[in-house]
Design goal:
alpha/beta; seven-stranded mixed sheet
Length: 269
């Protein structure tokens, strides 16, 4: 019997820097809708769940999930580890993929590539990602863990950053878990120079511009298609270039032993 793959997309309305970012409009649909549309393009058979906080203000996301045609799980607001674990148990997952909702340009081919690597290992890995170290353009974040790995993490993790970000306990404890990483086969590292994720208003303007340029002619446009566009249209690249390399690591460098200052950047200004 094949392993049941569950893709958990964590989302919330109450983003501190850009509230409601997941329902901002992209070509007549929400950003979350466009992202789920891309996730459904993967080769693998998987179940999808949008995991949101169990708060009244998040009702709009449950309605959006119904519109998209995917399940919605409501759980802890700040304990994302618990939200992922409870969703995984509810849907009887064998393998859980953590994909944040701030990655609307994620390339389904990259998700397939990370899954290919995981399954080629034939049970070798507890956890596989393309983030440790990261080489793909930021916003192609794929993390895969077995249910056993997720359950152990849920039982043992205690620090706030481990609960809030779900997986740090895993990749910070390499003596406890078998960990694999997929690097970009181009040999390039664009993780600090190309930003395809959303946390600030210029990120939305960038993502919107990319969709408007590529989606009408090729709805399943790839990471390579985006990079080709940015070569031709450096003005689009510049929209959010000031935020390239900015990620959540910057606030926890004193707590993370496997992350170096070179893997993040402080917001300018």
């Amino acid at each position: 019997m094949a392993d049941k793959i569950l893709i958990v997309v964590q989302a919330r309305m109450s983003s501190s820097r850009l509230p409601g970012k997941v329902i901002l409009p992209i070509l007549g649909e929400s950003l979350l809708y466009r992202m789920m549309e891309r996730l459904k393009m993967i080769r693998y058979q998987a179940c999808f769940v949008i995991a949101i906080p169990d708060e009244k203000q998040e009702d709009i996301l449950e309605q959006e999930a119904a519109k998209i045609g995917v399940s919605c799980y409501r759980g802890s607001r700040d304990n994302l580890l618990d939200r992922h674990y409870q969703a995984a148990k509810l849907y009887n997952a064998d393998i859980v993929l953590k994909i944040p909702s701030d990655c609307p340009l994620i390339d389904p081919r990259i998700i397939d590539q990370v899954l290919d690597f995981y399954f080629a290992g034939q049970g070798k890995y507890d956890y596989v990602s393309n983030l440790h170290p990261a080489t793909f353009p930021d916003g192609n974040d794929v993390e895969i863990m077995t249910i056993q790995c997720l359950e152990r993490t849920w039982k043992e993790a205690a620090r706030q950053l481990e609960l809030e970000h779900t997986t740090p306990y895993i990749w910070e404890n390499q003596d406890k878990f078998s960990i694999g990483n997929v690097v970009w086969d181009t040999g390039n590292d664009y993780s600090m120079t190309h930003r395809f994720t959303i946390d600030y208003l210029p990120d939305y303007e960038f993502i919107k511009a990319v969709f408007e340029e590529l989606y009408p002619k090729k709805p399943d446009f790839s990471c390579d298609d985006i990079l080709e566009l940015l070569e031709k249209r450096p003005d689009i690249y510049q929209i959010n270039a000031a935020y390239s390399g900015v990620n959540w690591y910057r606030n926890h460098l004193d707590e993370l032993k496997t992350i170096s200052p070179e893997q993040t950047r402080i917001v300018a200004g």
